[in-house]
Write a structure and sequence with these properties.
By secondary structure, this protein is of the alpha/beta class. The chain is built from 14 helices and 5 strands. The chain folds into 2 domains: about 70 residues, Winged helix-like DNA-binding domain superfamily/Winged helix DNA-binding domain (Arc Repressor Mutant, subunit A, Orthogonal Bundle), CATH 1.10.10.10; about 160 residues, Rossmann fold, CATH 3.40.50.
Length: about 300
């Protein structure tokens, strides 16, 4: 056999930096029409255009009709172009350096940073109503509630989402802990997870390798993995048993945690409902300890 022979790529997309691996893998799983293949090849070579242009704009550039672009998205498992683009754009932004993202988000004249930030978060929250279903939140909450123990893994600014989840779960009496140190500490903390345990892995944008590795190892040992991430194209989405998909794009170089925190609040409310009287009694005990320790300024009752 010749040394330069190789197995053809089932995706049909060109090799190289212009063809994202995550798109190649997704396309390889389906059978596209010839015109659908044109859409795939264009997106592979022009990911920025795919992340910002409408279905009609894309269709005109490729030389197909709008229905072809919509069917392409539906063939890949999405309801239509807007849902596909939401996930595609988040994964594309994750391939950029923060300085590149910053340049793409420069505000035009007349737009304040306050307005841009709030408008973007409003869009993210609206999109989250579609990207996360109540049934998925219920499933994730049930997994955490039934687990013998749960470890929440996150790092950097994303740890803020994990902090809220772990802290308020503990206030309800649930055996939930947080690991934010990363690297060898994450590996060591998650090494003992097994069947009956739960790992909540939180990572957005440029996915953290140690978080993904911890999730993969935990699942291989039988633990259940819940992911909170921002795209079906993310490594975590491929690993997790349950995935909460939340938009995180901001108006600057960082990711916005507004929508993820809102989804975590829904998850916590679901956990409180599952806990019933036991959760309420635990919260009351915690409040009494807070009072005994005199942790807060007293209420002004006059």
């Amino acid at each position: 056999m010749s040394n330069d022979s190789h197995t053809p790529d089932p995706s049909g997309l060109p090799d190289g930096a212009g063809s994202p691996e995550w798109l190649r893998e997704r396309v390889a799983e389906v059978k596209l029409t010839p015109k659908g293949e044109l859409v795939a090849r264009f997106l592979a070579a022009n990911p920025r255009a795919g992340s910002v242009e409408s279905a009609s704009e894309l269709a005109e550039r490729i030389g197909v009709n709008v229905a072809t672009v919509v069917r392409f998205a539906q063939t890949l498992g999405f309801s239509g172009w807007p849902e596909f683009q939401l996930h595609f754009r988040h994964r594309y932004l994750g391939s950029l350096l923060p300085t590149d993202v910053l340049r793409s988000h420069r505000q035009g004249e007349g737009t304040s940073h306050l307005e841009a930030a709030i408008r973007r978060d409003t869009e993210n929250l609206q999109a989250a109503l579609t990207s996360v279903s109540p049934e998925t939140v219920e499933q994730a909450a049930r997994t955490i509630y039934d687990a013998r123990r749960t470890v929440v893994v996150a790092s950097g600014s994303f740890a803020a989402v994990g902090q809220v989840l772990a802290h308020l779960s503990a206030v309800m009496g649930l055996p939930v802990t947080l690991e934010t140190r990363g690297g060898v500490s994450t590996v060591a903390t998650c090494a003992a997870l097994e069947a009956g345990d739960c790992l909540v892995a939180i990572s957005f944008w440029r996915q953290m390798r140690d978080v993904s590795r911890a999730a993969r190892d935990a699942r291989e040992r039988g633990a259940t993995v819940v992911a909170i991430t921002d795209s079906v194209f993310s490594p975590l989405a491929e690993i997790a048993d349950t995935t909460l998909m939340v938009p995180t794009e901001s108006a600057s170089f960082f990711q916005s945690l507004t929508a993820p925190l809102s989804v975590v609040y829904a998850l916590l409310a679901q956990l409180e409902e599952l806990g019933g009287d036991e959760a309420e009694n635990t919260i009351a005990r915690v409040q009494r300890v807070w009072a005994d320790l005199d942790l807060f300024h007293p209420y002004d009752t006059t």
